[in-house]
Backbone:
């Protein structure tokens, strides 16, 4: 077959090559893209903690986060009774970018004459700018009687 044209001309080969590159490059770009930022609870959180009897406390958490480890302080006071307050050290962890477990470890400061108990477990879930879940405490002054309730906090702009 002398004089016949080749099946694949240079122009056709260039078009096929460009089409293949257009299909491959987006996949490679996606593979090299930065992962989404990890969820963080670092910052100031403000809200309330309500016990089973209906008593409500204002609570403010100041948290720092390094990886999954969390540390900071909590400040609690009875609603409308700002003279009764306590500031505690807080430690905990974050798992799966949403599940937060915190514990008050030490009372740093409290109003005179007030008997505050440490919250031994806060089981919270992060959803956007809200932390919400359950808490448990032991009342040291009442012979270790336990208390529990719900807590809801919002991320503050502070």
Residues:
């Amino acid at each position: 077959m002398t004089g016949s044209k080749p099946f694949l001309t240079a122009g056709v080969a260039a078009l096929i090559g460009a089409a293949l590159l257009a299909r491959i490059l987006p996949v490679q770009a996606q593979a090299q893209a930065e992962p989404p930022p990890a969820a963080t609870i670092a910052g100031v959180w403000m809200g309330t903690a309500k016990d089973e009897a209906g008593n409500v406390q204002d609570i403010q958490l100041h948290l720092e986060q390094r990886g999954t480890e969390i540390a900071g302080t909590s400040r609690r006071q009875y609603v409308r009774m700002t003279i009764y307050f306590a500031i505690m050290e807080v430690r905990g962890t974050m798992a799966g970018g949403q599940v937060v477990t915190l514990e008050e470890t030490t009372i740093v400061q409290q109003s005179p004459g007030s008997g505050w108990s440490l919250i031994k477990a806060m089981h919270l879930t992060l959803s956007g700018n809200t932390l919400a879940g359950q808490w448990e405490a032991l009342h040291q002054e009442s012979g270790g009687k336990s208390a529990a309730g719900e807590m809801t906090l919002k991320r503050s702009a502070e």
Remarks:
- Strands lie at 43-51, 56-66, 69-78, 81-95, 99-110, 119-127, 130-139, 145-155.
